[in-house]
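Case study 2.
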Amino acid sequence: MDTKKHYKLYKDGKKWCVMTIAAVASVIGLATTANADDTDTTTSPVQTAQVADNSNVAELPQSNVESVQANSNPANQDIENENLNSSVISDDKSTTPVQPQSAQEKNGWVNENNNWTYYNNGQVTNGRDYTYLPTINGGGHSWYLVDNGVVQSGVQQWAGSYYDFDANNNYQRVDNNYVQSQWGDWYLFGNDGRIQTGVQQWAGTYYYFDPTTYLRVDNDYRQAQWGDWYLFGNDGRILSGLQNWKGQTYYFDPSTFKKVVNSDVTVNGTKYHLDNDGIAKAVSNVDAKVDKALSQRGVPYVWGGNTPAGFDCSGLVQWAYGLGSSYRTTYQQATLGTHKRDVINAPKGSLLFFGSDSAPYHVAISLGNGSYVHAPEPGDVVKIGYSKFFTPSFYITM
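Prediction:
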C-alpha cells in the first residue's frame, strides 16, 4: 500500500517535472521566435527567459541553456545586421551627397546678384584692396579696386590719390583719359591711372585741375605748377588773346597761352601796354595806328598794294587804320572828316592830303611837328617825309 502510494507520488512528481520542463521550453521557444522577428529588441535570449519565469532558470541544466542560446540563431543576427546596414544606406541616398571640398570652392570672378566678386580658393579679401587681377572678360590682367571682394566702379579713392574704374570696360582702371565722374565733374587720369592736377594738356588744348579737389577749373584765372598765369573759360579750355578778368584786361600769348607782362601788344588796331602784373592799358588809338604804319618802313611801293608785301599811299592808310573796302582810295578817305588847312600843326595820327578837296591825289599819316609817314611813289619805299619839303593841302582828324 505504502509502496504503491510512493510509486504514485513518484509518478505524479515525474509528470510534474515533465510538464514544468515543457512549459519552460515553450516559453524559451516563444522568446527565441520573437527575437528573430523583431530587429529592434536589444534583450538577449537569456534575459527574455528570465523575464518569462525567473524562478525556473536556475533549475535548467546547462545543456538546456546552451540549447536556448543556440536557438538565438547567428544567421538571423547576420540578417538583422544586413537589414540594419541596408536601412542606413537607404537613408544616405535620401540626403544630398557630400561633395568634395574643391568642388564647392569659388575661384576667380563670380557674378553674384549683378555684382562681380573675386574669389581665391573660396575666400574674398576683407576690406578694400587695389590689386592686379585677371580681367573679368578673361582678356589678360588689369588693375581693379575691390571692397570685400566686390569690384568697384567710377572715381574711387586709394592711397592718397584717386583712380577711375570703367564699368563699361569690365571695371578696368582708366589710364590716360579725360573722363566725367559718376557725380558729373570732369577729371584727367595719367598713364598710371592716377588723377592729375595743375595745367594739363588734352586733345590739343589745356585744362587746369585743382590740386585740392582735383576738379576741372572752369572760368578761372590760375597759376600753373611752374608759376605762370593762365585763364580758363566756361568749358575749362585755356584762353588766349585779350581777355577780361574781374574788371581788368590781360593779354595771353596765342602760342604759349601765358599771361604777357611788361610789353606792348596791338590788338585789332589798338595798342596796349602790359604792366608788371600783366594788366593791359590801352595806348591812344592814334598812337597805335601811327606805330603800325611806322613798322612798315622800308616796304616797297606797289601800285594798288595794301599789305606788308607792298603798299601804295592809300593802301598804307587803309591797312594801318583798319579801314574797310569803302575807304580804299585817297578820294574815299578824304570824306572821313572835315577838311582843315593848318597842315603844319596837324596833330599826330591825322591824315594829310595833297591836291584839291574834290580830287586829292596823295595821302600821308601825320607824325606831328610837320612830319609824316607815307608810301611816296613807284620805285620808292614806305618812309618818313616833311611838310616843309612836300607840303599837304589839307588834313582831317580821325
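The first strand starts at residue 108 and ends at 112.
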